[in-house]
Design a protein that fits this description.
Radius of gyration: 19 Å
Number of helices: 11
Largest sheet: 7 strands, parallel
Order of helices and strands: EHEHEHEHHEEHEEHEEEHEEHEEHH
Bound molecules: uridine-5'-diphosphate
Strand order of the largest sheet: 3-2-1-4-5-7-12
Helix content: 25-40%
Number of strands: 15
Strand content: 15-25%
CATH architecture of one domain: 3-Layer(aba) Sandwich
Length: about 350
């Protein structure tokens, strides 16, 4: 019998790519999303890639009863992947209560539903932001969690803690805490990708929008860091590789011990500087990007990248795409969008 997987935030950037990979792997993904950070046509695009219907429910995940009603439609719910959350660091500083209410509130709601509906397997979207500025920039899952620099980061740390306690409490919960590095790129079909609202906060959509002429120029946030070219170093991972890791995490939960709440770093293990990303984008797409060097952005750590060994060894997962692929796919996606 096909296993149903509930995907909250399944119309979002990482969620939509994960729904495709779940479908490819033979699961029956069911999307819950209220489009606060996506668009209804993304569902059509997912279906066009999959070549089949994907059940979809327009529900706010804070609404526990509504989520429960969705879940109760299905008899064989194998697991839940919880993406639905607010994710803009700067906005979280301006609107901290909204971030705690939505991110923590949604998690508590879905945990209650999982317990009352006897759903055992939870895959949670976390972030490498939980490590803050680490002494060794190649972080492992044992790298200490740091006091968060933003309400957003603190909601991820808080949600991880809630899940760890919930997993050890009564009930059958097993969980994975997936700590994402920097997802970039888009589906190779260019049918789904990132849909930033307003001015992008993240580097890659800012680059593609600048190349397209929507933004006049990219500002590089500082070139006086203690890194080889002075700009920040991050671990940029293709969104499809990240999506596939969620399928692997579900498979891992099948055999995981009871009460297991396992963190995994999802990154490539390779760091790239901001200038290297600009060069890669220019070279792969054969164009010139208008950019200037500006001041540092508050809260940026100079260098962080994943040690992905645990995810490789335990999940049997490795990245198949390169940064070169990702910058091409990101540009194809941007060009496919209207203005
Ligand atoms: N960055 C930049 N200009 C921008 C956006 C981002 O120079 O307009 C840099 C930022 O300082 C960081 C990197 O790009 O070093 C990745 O930033 P992003 O916000 O995408 O992800 P973060 O790692 O901060 O979560």
């Amino acid at each position: 019998m096909t296993k149903t997987v509930i995907v909250t935030g399944g119309a979002g950037y990482i969620g939509s790519h994960t729904v495709v990979e779940l479908y490819n792997a033979g699961y029956n993904p069911v999307i819950i999303d209220d489009f606060r950070n996506s668009k209804p046509w993304i569902i059509d695009r997912i279906e066009s890639i999959c070549g089949g219907k994907i059940p979809f429910f327009n529900v706010d995940c804070q609404d526990e009863l509504a989520v429960k009603k969705v879940v109760e439609n299905y008899t064989n719910v194998h697991g839940l992947i919880h993406f639905a959350a607010d994710k803009a660091v700067g906005e979280s500083v301006a609107k901290p209560v909204q971030y705690y209410q939505n991110n923590v509130g949604s998690l508590c709601a879905i945990l209650n539903v999982m317990q009352s509906c006897n759903i055992e397997n939870l895959v949670f979207s976390s972030s490498c932001t939980v490590y803050g500025e680490a002494a060794d920039p190649a972080v492992t899952e044992e790298t200490p969690i740091k006091e968060a620099a933003s309400p957003y980061g603190d909601t991820k740390i808080t949600c991880e803690k809630i899940i760890q306690f919930a997993t050890k409490g009564e009930g059958q919960l097993k969980s994975t805490l997936l700590r994402y590095f920097n997802p970039i790129g888009a589906h190779p079909s260019a049918k789904i990708g990132e849909l930033p609202q307003g001015v992008p906060n993240n580097l890659m959509p800012y680059i593609t929008q600048t190349a397209k002429g929507i933004r006049e120029k990219l500002t590089v946030f500082g070139n006086d860091y203690d890194t080889p070219d002075g700009t920040n170093i991050r671990d940029y991972i293709h969104v499809v590789d990240l999506a596939i890791a969620h399928v692997k995490a579900l498979e891992f939960l099948d055999t995981a011990a009871n009460n297991s709440a396992e963190p995994f770093n999802l990154g490539t293990g390779r760091g790239s500087s901001v200038l290297e990303m600009i060069r890669a984008f220019e070279t792969e797409n054969n164009l010139k990007l208008n950019y200037v060097i500006g001041p540092r952005r508050a809260g940026d750590v100079p260098m962080i990248y994943a040690n992905p060994k645990k995810a490789q060894d335990v999940l049997g997962w490795t990245c198949k795409y390169t940064v070169s692929d990702a910058v091409k796919h990101a540009w194809n996606w941007e060009q496919s969008l209207g203005n």
